[in-house]
Amino acid sequence: MPLDFFEKIESHLENKLPFVVYRKPNEQAVTAICQQDDELHYLSDYTETGFVFAPFDSSSTTVLLKLDQVLRFTDFEDEEIVKSESNREETCTKQKAFHLDLVKKGIAEINVGNFDKVVLSRRIQLNMKTPPLALFRSLLHEYKTAFCYLWYHPKVGLWLGATPEILLTMRNRKITTMSLAGTQNYNNEENPEWGNKELEEQQLVTEYIFNALEGKVSDLERTPTESVRAGSLLHLRTKISGNSKQENLGEVIRALHPTPAVCGMPKEKTKAFILTNENYDREFYTGFLGELNFKTERNRNNRPRNTENNVYRSISKNTTLFVNLRCMQMNEDKVSIYVGGGITKDSNPEKEWVETVAKSKTMLKVIKAVE
Question: Which ranges carry the Chorismate-utilising enzyme C-terminal domain (predicted)?
Answer without folding.
Answer: 99-295, 314-359
